Amino acid sequence: MMKSSRLHNLHLLILTFTPLSTQISVFLQPKPENAVTVAVSSRVLFRTEREQKVFEQKGVEEYLRYQIEHENEPFAPGPAFPFVKALEAVNTRLRELYPQSEELFDIVLVTYNHAHVGIRLINTINHHNLFIERFCMTGGSSPIGYLKAWHTNLYLSADAEKVREALAEGIAAATMFMPEKLTEVSESQLRVAFDGDAVLFSDESERIFKTHGLDKFFEHEKENEDRLLDHGPLKGFLEALGKLQKKFYAKGQRLDCPIRTYLVTARSAASSGIRALKTLRAWGLEIDEALFLAGAPKGPMLEKIRPHIYFDDQMFHVEGAAEMGTVAAHVPYGIAQKYSSQQKMSSGK
Ligand SMILES: [Mg+2]
């Protein structure tokens, strides 16, 4: 196992390139430990379904030929595109306020592709005026080691297996899907929405619900109101967003902050919600808006919020949000993964 992955690494090609746009050259490239690093796979940043089909039906040689033949045709934006654009809008504001600071979003494009396909990806990045300077082409091997080396704060991919691997390594990660319809989102304010249990928090309470039902869950949460919830896989990303938000607050821009965060949970305010709020407060994390839906569907609420991305551990909620035009990403973590299909309709919380 070790040997083969070492061998694979020999094929790895990492390109750091400067897009054609000249203004990028004056920007500092932040060190990974200072930046909020978001790694995005090419299959979620762009729409590559047609190419995927060529690969699946005709094999790798035909696929490479196809990509080279089409290398001057940019890919269309994929589900992570508006999110990445919003990260860049926040960076513009941060650079105005703090020209020398390295505390910025840093976007890494991760792809399993062969270097030949890189040309088409670079052409696409320039076509869409994206400022992506880090580019990791793994030639088929797993990107997880590189995600760690880059101090990745969030990894978004179409490959659920890789997402699970990243989560197992303690990296915040989520699977994204190709949506059928998309709600228009803000170009100047980044909006990120999180589920609570098994996303920001551990799945401790979710386990009670899944094994003993809703009444026991409420009872458990009431009894444990003053005991903090353990942290979940996306807590670190909320923390990173909070760190950048504070930079705007420090300049008197709290009301005009270009980052807004939301908790969208099926917990109910009166009973189980208080434990969630107490936990966030104890962690020193502010969430701008908290919505306790008490089991009501999340889709209509998310349609109003219009987040660039919404994270949930249950496919039921991810699908419900996506049906209403929200870009929803699945966090394959915790007890809900064992119940994914059979309890679809009975997901009361
Ligand atoms: Mg949950």
TrEMBL record:
Any one cellular component term from GO for this entry? cytosol
Write down the Pfam families for this protein, in alphabetical order.
5-nucleotidase
As given in the record, the signal peptide range reads 1-23
Which key words tag this protein in UniProt? Signal
Record GO terms (molecular function): 5'-nucleotidase activity; magnesium ion binding; nucleotide binding
Q: Has the keyword Signal been applied to this entry?
A: yes
Q: Name any Gene Ontology BP term.
A: nucleotide metabolic process
Task: Write down what this protein is called.
Answer: 5'-nucleotidase, cytosolic IAa
State the organism of origin. Answer: Poecilia reticulata (Guppy)
